[in-house]
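Extended Data, panel c. Modelled sequence:
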Amino acid sequence: MLFIILNIPILLLAISLSRLFRLRRKNSLKKDALLQELGVTDKRQKRIVGFFHPYCNAGGGGERVLWTAVALFQRTEPDVISVVYTGDTDATKEEIIRKVKSRFDIELDPTSLHFIFLHKRNLVADTTWPRFTLLGQSTGSMILAWEAMSVLIPDLYIEDALDTMGYAFTFHVVKLLGGIPIGAYVHYPTISTDMLARVRTRQSTYANATTISSSAALSTGKLLYYRIFMHMYAQALRRAGFVMVNSSWTKNHVDSILQHKDLLFDTLHLISPLALLDFVYPPSPPRSARIVYPPCDTREMVKFPLGHREHIILSIAQFRPEKNHKLQVEAFAELLSTSPKYRENGSVRLVLLGGSRNAEDAARVEQLRSLAKELKVDQHVQFVVNAEYSEMLDWLSRASIGLSTMIDEHFGINVVEYMAAGVIPVTHASGGPLNDIVVPFNGLPTGFHATTAQTYAATFDKVFSLAEEEEIALRSRTRIWAVQRFSQEEFEKGWNESGWREELR
């Protein structure tokens, strides 16, 4: 009996290796079946690039990056087949392609694009993990990656997903099952030094509940948890052969993570199962990440007239908690309270335009409606949910102010859209909007920053009070800067220089 017990780990390892080899043997047949399904006759030169994006149909800025990259491959790489691993099981391939056209005006060729629909996406939802959310979602992403690789192992795996967190922990599974090269486009680091700092200083945010921030013991425990998680995240991210990021803010954090060292946990790593994976597939991560700013299609936006704008404060953002729509409604209420003239003439409106991915997002919209009613501004607030691209363009052509309130927004493609459309941005004084986007151009401002309901309200009033000549000059300067800096052409150039071709050889 003792002999059997002692040999159980060896038996389990043998079974796992057997399943692994069987999975790899069958993969070539799966590739042939996929190419046949797509109508490919010459299969010799075809390479498959897999994009892991569980919410590819969400219609946000992260999805624009995905579809612009896929369209680039289709236009310039005839031997590449793009496979998207997604959990959008409620949509068909044709429906997703139509939505991409409607939302982003991006044409996709179905003959070189395939979707693998995953059925365990709930494991990466934050609502599934009310406690230890980061660890739970990351573990869930590994299970989801296992499901993905069990269906098809591509020739190159790229993690290009945005849902508050990334999915770098999938790299362990992909490397184990496929032994293939890995790349990443990081929109937002799963954990950052800013997050640790807020826990250390006991700041209450959407990611650090008041019950924790108000307790020294719980805050100390969470700091330890974050320290462990930072080590684990660094080990995962180092399995990538190339890493792109969307802003200098993200780059600073990702670079520090790639170079992160922790003597205690680095030592413990040497006796963990992942050490064996390191031996078989020695990681060779880049020393630093490459900034590739997300693309903004400005072709229609630059046509909008700069003058005669309505007093509309426009927010374009998915109804996710970190976007902080609550602050937007509170800031607008503050404006109407401190400057009653805007309430009296009824000329000022707050328009919240964004995507709703699921029941949780829909519930947030209803909570915002209730808040607007509670603050007695509901008659001046309008919600536009899951708008088509043409409707979004219409609002951009009329609005005066573009609003963003997310703290440490990794980039802010919505802010770029504001600027290209000639809408004056008012953003939170942090992250990408502060460091990369709403920055001086030729020594002059391209927008404004704020932090509280009071400072946002004061800035709204400042913009509405600009002299016409000054206002037009600001809108023009804002547009020129955005078009020059954040074009689709610049994104495609950066993507092609990232090193993906070298990894695919």
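Confidence is low (pLDDT under 50) at residues 1-6. This feature is highlighted in the accompanying rendering.
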